[in-house]
Amino acid sequence: MNSPWLQRFVPRPGARLRLFCFAHAGGSAGVYRPWCNALPDAVELVAIQLPARANRLKDPVITRLDHIVDGVVDALRPHLDLPYALFGHSMGAVLANEVARALSHEGAPMPWHLFVSGRRPPHWPNPDPLLHVLSDADFVAEIQRRYGGIPPEVAEHEELMAMLLPSLRADIHALETHTPPAGRTPLACPLSVFGGSHDPLTPREHLEGWRGESSGPFHLRVLPGDHFYLNAQRDALLADVSASLAPLLAKAAAVA
């Protein structure tokens, strides 16, 4: 895969299904590297790398979510030769959902499963004051208060924060200014929704709200933890994801 948008950590030539993963705001594709060996051997994990981070640090930021979706869709098209699923956490949940819809709109193969995590449905209004309009200092303080996602070793290091802030601010700007059109047709794929039991930003009712995004089978699971529950609960989460993928792998093998 030669697209800067795609990171494949462990190539699996014999894979029967690809899992495309989308990180939280400011996150890089590398957050999904530890997942590779915890998934079935027949699943090839490919993480999405947005501009202005990691190996794309010099690429200009993108502050419109629809432009990000366009870039991802362009990168994915050559790699839809296998059945695939999408997983997204927080901002990544919105991106995964919008990418699935964009692919559906252009008649591309649809995902066999959509996994979303730690985010209210895209059509629900933002109940919190906007972050992207704040000064850098206030922005960082509020990000930490709401999400707690910046490690202390990064937050206390001026140079590291200078590297993180452009991508984080761009992602939050894209997320907060995105308004999906009303009355959209639900997706038809199975939908699994995950969240943390003590995530104040995404209570269970927000997770339940995803039911309207797909007409396919719906699965909800709340795991112990806060907004970043998936770090401590990785084994439980991936066991659930793998169980959902198992019948899809069997189906893919039968039609191969």
Question: Please, could you describe this protein's structure?
Answer:
It is a single chain. With 256 residues, this protein is α/β, with parallel strands linked by helices. It is 36% helix and 14% strand. The protein contains eight helices and seven strands; from the N terminus they run βββαβαβαααβαβαα. A seven-stranded mixed sheet has the order 1-3-2-4-5-6-7, sandwiched between helices. β6, α6 and β7 form a beta-alpha-beta unit. α1 packs across α2. The radius of gyration is 17 Å and the shape is globular.
Average pLDDT value?
94
Tell me about the biggest sheet? Answer: 7 strands, mixed
> How many β strands by DSSP?
7
Low-confidence stretches: none
> For the terminal residues, how far apart are their CA atoms?
22 Å
Q: How much helicity do the residues have?
A: 25-40%
Portion in strands: 5-15%
The Rg value, from CA coordinates, equals 17 Å
Please write the string of helix (H) and strand (E) elements: EEEHEHEHHHEHEHH
Supply the helix-strand structural class: alpha/beta
Judging from the principal axes of the Cα atoms, what is the shape?
globular
The side-by-side strand order for the widest beta sheet comes to 1-3-2-4-5-6-7
Q: Tags for this entry?
A:
alpha/beta, 7-stranded mixed β-sheet, 256 residues, globular
SSE arrangement:
Blueprint (H helix, E strand, L loop, with lengths): L5 E2 L9 E6 L20 E6 L16 H12 L7 E6 L1 H15 L7 E5 L18 H11 L5 H4 L2 H19 L14 E6 L7 H5 L9 E6 L5 H4 L1 H22 L1
Parallel strand pairs: 2-3, 2-4, 4-5, 5-6, 6-7
Antiparallel strand pairs: 1-3
